[in-house]
Write a structure and sequence with these properties.
- The chain is mainly beta and about 400 residues long.
- Among the domains are: about 60 residues, no CATH class; about 80 residues.
- A five-stranded mixed β-sheet has the order 8-12-11-10-9, with no helix packed on it. Strands 22-21-23-24-25 form a five-stranded mixed β-sheet, with no helix packed on it. A four-stranded antiparallel β-sheet has the order 3-2-1-26, with no helix packed on it.
- The radius of gyration is 24 Å and the shape is globular.
Length: about 400
């Protein structure tokens, strides 16, 4: 670059192109970035910065969850044939703003569940199933829901039955699924468990040709299910069954105390075990840790815990408030779906709010963050914690 028409060799100083910073300097700068969204922007500046910064940074602190708003096609009266452009809306709680991500992989797919930064995407008829990281656009293919299904405990390598009829009546329930990983997804032994309401629990490993079904041994409505440390947990209204993956014929039954019967509950899996989140009719939220020796539920302190809940048909995501001093513990973040009548037409009311566990203090974070075609019952959003792995 020339200055005052002087020859470049005679410049008193030169402007450096940031793209040509030494790689070790770029890496040092990248480690100063603490927000995952800023880190994504940093790596997108140019190819040099992208290659000099770590693709899987370990210096980033735990990130606040994002809420992915459900995509519901809104008919365009001027152009009825307008196609989905793949743009999805996500509310970034940390920066307090709505983000628009181009995710063409989600076109004609249902975002059914999230876990450890990955989304479970299923085609309408279940012919295609895969995991997607919305930040890196990495994709992991999973067995189709139209593939034959095995039964846990069946020693034969041949599938037990055809999955076409197995999933046929559950096409509309894929959007109410939950998902867990047994270990990190990068581990070849990672078991991916999916619970499809009302009572389908299946699992697979990356590369498996088909899914394997876990039988609950109960002809009752299954509220929630998860996998932790070699065992499947089945949550009912009044009890919980525990089934070992290596001994599926054995079953441990745990009956809840009378005061917890008929209370809305969900399962959380954490580093130290399984938790039960109880949502009482008065708005109070209690968290219990499940202990097997002896078999009981033990109330835990919630002073440093924040629970993120899409709705009663979505899994809960808990984080520790010590990771983010700007948030108060003992609180819950939820979304509110509702309808009100305007000019005899039903219009959607949608907001994200926070509340303390006793329900006395409610603060709306954002109201009607994006235009959405309403449905009844309304589809909930999807909380997920952004990460690179």
């Amino acid at each position: 670059m020339k200055h005052n028409n002087m020859p470049e060799d005679n410049l008193p100083f030169q402007f450096r192109d940031w793209a040509y910073l030494p790689p070790e300097v770029v890496e040092l700068i990248s480690k100063k970035v603490k927000s995952i969204t800023d880190y994504v922007r940093f790596r997108a500046v140019c190819s040099t910065w992208h290659s000099a910064s770590l693709p899987n940074p370990s210096h980033l602190p735990p990130q606040l969850p994002w809420l992915m708003l459900p995509f519901e096609p809104r008919p365009n009266q001027t152009d009825p044939d307008e196609k989905d452009n793949g743009i999805r809306l996500l509310y970034d709680l940390w920066e307090g703003k709505m983000r628009r991500l181009y995710l063409p992989e989600t076109i004609d797919m249902m975002c059914c569940a999230s876990y450890h930064g990955w989304l479970l995407l299923v085609s309408v008829k279940g012919r295609e199933v895969f995991l997607l990281n919305p930040l890196t656009r990495d994709r992991i293919q999973l067995p189709s829901f139209t593939s034959p299904v095995k039964l846990l405990g069946n020693d034969s390598d041949s599938p037990s039955f055809d999955a076409t009829s197995y999933f046929e009546s559950y096409y509309g329930c894929f959007g109410k699924s939950t998902m867990t990983f047994s270990v990190d997804i990068t581990d070849p032994n990672c078991m991916i468990t999916v619970f499809i309401r009302p009572y389908r629990v299946i699992f697979c490993r990356v590369g498996d040709p088909c899914w394997t079904r876990v039988i609950s041994h109960r002809n009752r409505y299954l509220i929630d299910a998860t996998y932790y440390n070699g065992q499947f947990y089945f949550l009912y209204g009044e009890a919980m069954d525990i089934i070992k993956s290596n001994k599926p014929e054995e079953r441990i039954v745990f009956n809840f105390e009378p005061e917890l019967e008929d209370v809305r509950m969900h399962l959380l899996d954490g580093k130290s075990g399984i938790y039960v989140v109880a949502l009482h009719p008065d708005g109070n939220v209690e968290v219990y840790q499940f202990q097997e020796q002896p078999l009981k539920l033990k109330a835990t302190s919630t002073s440093d815990t924040i629970v993120f809940s899409g709705s009663i048909i979505r899994p809960h995501l808990a984080i520790c408030s010590n990771d983010w001093n700007s948030l108060d513990g003992d609180s819950i973040y939820m979304e509110d779906n509702g309808l009100f009548n305007v000019d005899e037409s039903r219009r959607a009311h949608y907001s994200i709010f926070s509340a303390d566990r006793d329900g006395n203090t409610i603060e709306h974070i954002v109201r009607n963050p994006g235009k959405r075609q309403h449905r009844w019952p309304p589809e909930p959003g999807l909380w997920f914690q952004p990460r690179f792995l």
